[in-house]
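Quick start: what a row looks like.
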Amino acid sequence: LVAMASGYEAKDSGEEYEFQPPPRTDTPLVVPFTATEVRKQLRNTLLVAELRQLCRSHAQSLRYFAGLLSLTHELEDTEALEAIHDALSFVEGSEVDVPRAGIQALACMCDRRRRIGKQGKAVSASGTLLKCLESALSTTSCAEHLKCLMASIFTLLADDDRPQGEEIDLPEVGLRILEPFLQSSDWGLRANGLGGLTALLAASTRVASQLLHRSQAPFLAILHSIKKPPPGPEGRAAQNNAVEVFLLSCGDQKTRQAVIEFGGIDILLDALKDGEEGCRGLMHAKLVAVLATLAGHKKDVREEIFDRIDFLVELRHALDVARDSASAARAEGKTGANIEEVRRLFRALYESCACLTIHGEFKESLLASKRTLKSMQDLLTAQDLVEDPQLAFFYASIAYNLCRSREDKVRPKNKQFPFNELDDDDLNAIEEFYEKMPAESRPVKNGEVDAGSGELAEKLRAWCVMQSGDIVRRATDTPSSPASANLIAHLGKCTAHGSTRVKNLVALVLKFLCAEPSHRRFVVSSGGVRTLLGLIDLEEEAASDAARQALAQICIVTNPTLLS
């Protein structure tokens, strides 16, 4: 029956079916017509209560029964959920892994509902569903499957588009689900609770941040897991999940303040030093990313972190590890989940760099540590910028911060960008990013933040043009065959797939770079003219004028044959 309802029996060969993940995760899965008809008939004819009694004591039968119900029934079917709960609460460690089948079955039901989006009914936190989640979190033999389940269920519960009377207090529900596991003395169960908190943060940062401040249990579990994990896989999993929680949540100002008040800086610095000599793994890089985010919170916090570690060296190692991990994941053909884990680290590192590069004193340190500056530039590929609009925004923000000085401040006028001429998604993204920024780094009144001297900006602009990529300026370069600059090429990718805000930033960056006549040929050879031509009609007047000015300056000094 499972084979018939799944459609796998349609294969002509006698080989066993091998699951292949779908190329897209935001559209309904294509199901063969015969399988669709079988599912309809089974939904109407299956005697769930009777079959549940027959299967519950037989591992193989219960395993297949849970899989069958995941194809034929929905999350609102109480009897089906009770049967899946039987599988979830089956004894672990037997020859047939029934709890894993139960987790996969519930995840399948959630994923199918998630894929149909607004066309599906809003999922409610029923008692039976919560019971199933509790049993799933009590399973310690299939962490990856559990992560998929928690990510799907929290995505569904975080949906705000609900009829009146069906609203969910998700912070309260999430705390009720996760708190027993966060407080558990069993490190496997605690790792599951922290993994569930990571899934909630990925689904809704706002909701998860509210949960963190409703009880001390989450912060205590996170900090204890980072500080004193026991040796072995369960301790490592708990520590990794705890750092992931901070990685996703420390963009919130209130959360950063709580981490500082709970002594989080000392714990993070100790964890950074506890590894073996020369250890620079992914965990180490995540710890550095969290510290970098905290460094942007306040000046005194930044000074404390910079005094206690060689921050720029640690940042460079973290950037290099993140880049190498992404390259390895792509080369090995790992799943989207593995690449997304590295992308989360990318975002955290770049978000913190975007906040720190606002300050002239940090830019001076960065200029003195060109290897760190180079690692910051080399972290992303063109593919990353195309696939992730957030990374494109952070990349453009960093380039803008590096190239501007205290003389280049622009004060937005009333009823001007970004408060008009934006669609809801762009405006929400910008407002969310500004909300995450520390108070001293927010775009407020001129003079609040010192962006550095004009001389510093000129040096950084020169670096961006001539040393920002793998192809750097050489002694043999001529005006007719100059080298290329990766930063300018990457900015072109940002504008092709980024928001209006990104395009405005890129226009201003290229204006800064073209202010020096010797830089203009590098802008041309790196595709800057094509990028600028796409920016001259921006609705933001300052950005549009910047693009036109840069083009005019290029045309004054550039051989016309290079523009063809």
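That is the whole record. Confidence is low (pLDDT under 50) at residues 9-23, 470-484. The CA atoms of residues 122 and 446 lie 46 Å apart.
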